[in-house]
Amino acid sequence: MKERNEVDPDLRTVERIQAGEASAFRDIVDKYKDKSLSLISSYIKNDQQAEDVLQDAFIKAFDNIHKFRLESLFSTWLYRIIVNTCLRQKETNKADLFEELSVIESIDFQSASAIEMLEQNERSAYIALTFKMMKSEEALLLRLFYLCDLSIAEIQQVTGYSESNVKVILHRARKNMYGILVKLTGNDLKI
Prior knowledge:
Layout: H1 4-7, H2 10-18, H3 25-43, H4 47-64, H5 74-92, H6 95-105, H7 114-117, H8 120-133, H9 136-147, H10 152-159, H11 163-185
């Protein structure tokens, strides 16, 4: 039988923080900041606001880490805080989305050649832009599933959605992402 720390390597760090070693929270920040920022960017389309939400979410996690019961994965608990923080922030800043969409619409995507699109940096840019153009809910679930490597059950815990709803949204998100990428690149992608 595996020990809890073998199942969730973060538990040892969390236990240190709960025991009063506040500096150990830096390990959590270092481990999760990049994935968390990417996850937040699914919902918050403004880079500066996304960084503010990231900081706010980590502060909330630190302030409430004593409430973490060590019964579930720490990452699931943390991602739930991040999603809740995003939802609250998004409600206060809906107008910013319209500004960004007008900037995106002014870009001429047909000028890129097929060879240039194969380069990694351009593919990354197209994917990042696609995430910005997708519905927030769809982009969030794609990132939770593929970037954060969460299972369907873990995504349910983070979002509060039913299993069937998670599967439907993921399916729809994959199709929408493909459609947006085809429109942006002007090419039928072979996947």
